[in-house]
Recover the amino acids of this structure.
């Protein structure tokens, strides 16, 4: 059977939504099973329309590739998310999608300082591991989905001199959120730099709830953040961080407890978060607050050369 890879336009969105919700892809693309999750992804500023592709086999949608372009210190990296439904696998469709993504990313490499291409998949997935190896990717990182059983959570103990406020939609609060995020995560693996306008997009997405974003202040400075997200029944502590000078004082634990309580009060189930498998301080905190590793996500990487 012949296959074709096309730029994904508005005319393909219905087919794309159907592909993402095929039972063979539902686990890998859980967020896209809800309309809010799908719409938020299509409006993500890291996923420009020019970096979305759909594969057709004999004119029928068979798979897709999304390339998220993430700017970081002095350059950028790309994460390609591939999905091919079961009945069209082992026919070269995924390879064709990856090759198209590679060519398009190579064309904009110099413009964005793009140096790295990534793939990822939930485990166990021997097929994905083999695919990554065949295409020159090496294992780079493990990320863990940690879940917490529903149940009592201790009240946040805010450090002395710290005041917590939820997001009020003001320009000041937006700037504080964005600045605190950049300062908290600048030293992390695959840090994604955020602009004020990109933060504005996040606060306008369908999953965003203003009362689900906590901003912790010491004086006039925002020193910690916790953002919760809902995609259907599950609830995620989607972002939690403290700026360097506010670490080691219990602020991260207080923010985490606040996030857990908010999600439970909002009837989320299950309750989860994602963490870098090499972030030992975060892992220690999360385990001490009742989280356990439920799933592992492997990341693979290869350079984008000249």
């Amino acid at each position: 059977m012949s296959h074709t890879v096309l730029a994904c336009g508005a005319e393909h969105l219905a087919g794309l939504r159907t592909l993402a919700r095929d039972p063979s892809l539902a686990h890998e693309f859980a967020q896209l099973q809800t309309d809010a999750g799908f719409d938020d992804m299509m409006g993500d500023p890291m996923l420009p329309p020019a970096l979305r592709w759909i594969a057709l086999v004999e004119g029928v949608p068979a798979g897709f590739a999304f390339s998220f372009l993430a700017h970081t210190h002095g350059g950028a990296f790309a994460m390609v998310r591939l999905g091919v439904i079961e009945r069209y696998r082992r026919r070269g469709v995924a390879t064709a999608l990856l090759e198209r993504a590679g060519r398009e990313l190579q064309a904009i490499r110099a413009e964005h300082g793009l140096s790295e291409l990534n793939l990822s998949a939930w485990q166990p997935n021997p097929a994905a591991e083999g695919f990554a190896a065949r295409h020159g990717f090496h294992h780079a990182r493990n990320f863990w989905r940690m879940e917490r059983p529903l149940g009592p959570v201790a009240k946040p103990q805010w450090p002395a001199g710290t005041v917590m406020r939820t997001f009020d939609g003001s320009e000041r609060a937006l700037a504080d959120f964005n600045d605190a995020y950049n300062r908290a995560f600048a030293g992390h693996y695959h840090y994604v730099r955020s602009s004020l306008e990109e933060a504005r997009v996040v606060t306008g997405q369908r999953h965003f709830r203003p009362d689900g974003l906590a901003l912790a202040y010491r004086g006039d400075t925002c020193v910690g953040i916790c953002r919760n997200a809902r995609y259907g029944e599950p609830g995620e502590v989607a972002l939690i961080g403290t700026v360097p000078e506010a670490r080691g004082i219990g602020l991260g634990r207080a923010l985490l407890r606040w996030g857990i309580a908010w999600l439970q009060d909002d009837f989320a189930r299950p309750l989860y978060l994602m963490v870098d498998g090499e972030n030992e301080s975060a892992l220690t905190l999360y385990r001490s607050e009742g989280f356990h590793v439920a799933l592992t996500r492997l990341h693979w990487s290869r350079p984008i050369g000249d």
The mean pLDDT is 96. The two ends are 33 Å apart (CA to CA). Residues 192 and 303 are 18 Å apart (CA to CA). The domain at 3-142+299-303 is CATH 3.40.630.30 (Aminopeptidase).
